[in-house]
Specification:
The chain is an all-alpha fold. The chain has a domain of 40 residues. Helices cover 57% and strands 0% of the residues. α1 runs antiparallel to α2. The protein is flat and about 55 Å long. 3% of the residues are buried.
Length: 76
């Protein structure tokens, strides 16, 4: 890219897109939790959000709460 005239060499960024597969098991669990168990829904949302942060290499606010939420979701 540096060889290209008038290029902005390091400023190439891809747009991030969120795709939701409504047929996926996780979406089904989220929908069921929304309808039947708001506390579980909150834990699922927090775990998914924190996983996204970790995947991007970002720190999570409360690692202990994250671990507890994961454990409680696995336990159920």
């Amino acid at each position: 890219l540096k060889a290209m005239p008038d290029s902005m060499a390091g400023d190439v960024h891809a747009e991030k897109i969120l795709e939701i597969n409504t047929e996926h098991q996780m979406f089904t669990k989220i929908k069921s939790s929304y309808e039947n168990d708001k506390e579980k829904l909150k834990k699922l949302a927090n775990v998914l959000y924190n996983q996204a942060l970790l995947i991007e290499g970002l720190p999570i606010e409360d690692p202990v709460q994250y671990a507890n939420d994961v454990y409680e979701l696995i336990e159920k």
